[in-house]
Amino acid sequence: MSANLEAKKLIVEEIKQKISAAKSVAFVDYRGLTVDTDVKMRKTLRENGAEYKVYKNRLMLRALNDLGITGCEKFLEGTTAVAFSYDDEVSAPKILLNTIEEKKIMQLKFGVVDGKVIDAEGVKALATLPPKETLLAMLLGLLKAPARNLACVLNAPISALARGLKAVSEK
């Protein structure tokens, strides 16, 4: 086997490992990206538990197909970079979308979440989700609301009696 083929196999294995470890993967067309913007974006991604890499399209396609993720052929054309989000599903798509909207460069292609392919609109929807902590706080508020409402209903007659007694005492 040639050294070049072995190197490509190692890269495919690396991509497969990163996709398997990531909670979400976002693919972008990075045309128009300046070095300065690229460095800042990569730094922000690293700080948020994500990684940004550029691989050859056919090596990414091979890795995706090996993992059983199909239907990506139409997206993997032209310049393509990939962002792996390891800490949560939304951090990498959110940073990419912020960069796209701020700099008016790059373009979302597609993404992979839980082994399923999502289109660019799905990646945008994922990027606009609130952080995990906010979602948990919202869920806790929903769970707490019935108990709070019950306490208010049970407390209402006692409060009304207390207000009535206070009004009588003031006369």
Helix and strand topology:
Blueprint: H1 3-21, E1 24-29, H2 35-47, E2 50-54, H3 57-66, E3 81-85, H4 91-103, E4 107-113, E5 116-119, H5 120-127, H6 132-170
Antiparallel strand pairs: 1-3, 1-4, 2-3, 4-5
Write structural notes for this entry:
By secondary structure, the chain is α+β, with helices and mostly antiparallel strands. It has 2 domains: 3-129, Alpha-Beta Plaits; 130-171. The chain contains 6 helices and 5 strands, in the order αβαβαβαββαα. The chain has a 5-stranded antiparallel sheet. A hairpin with a 2-residue loop joins strand 4 and strand 5 (116-119). The model has no long low-confidence stretch (mean pLDDT 86).
The share of residues in extended strands comes to 15-25%
Mean pLDDT: 86
- Which fold does the CATH topology of the largest domain refer to? Alpha-Beta Plaits
Helix content: 55-70%
Kindly, what is the distance between the CA atoms of the first and last residues, rounded to a whole number of angstroms?
102 Å
Just give the CATH class of the largest domain: Alpha Beta
Q: Overall 3D geometry? A: elongated
Radius of gyration from CA coordinates: 25 Å
Our count of helices gives 6
CATH-scheme architecture of the largest domain: 2-Layer Sandwich
Largest sheet features = 5 strands, antiparallel
What is the succession of H and E elements? HEHEHEHEEHH
The tally of strands reads 5
Structural class: alpha+beta
CATH superfamily of the largest domain: Ribosomal protein L10, N-terminal RNA-binding domain
Strand order of the largest sheet: 2-3-1-4-5
Low-confidence stretches: none
How many separate structural domains? 2
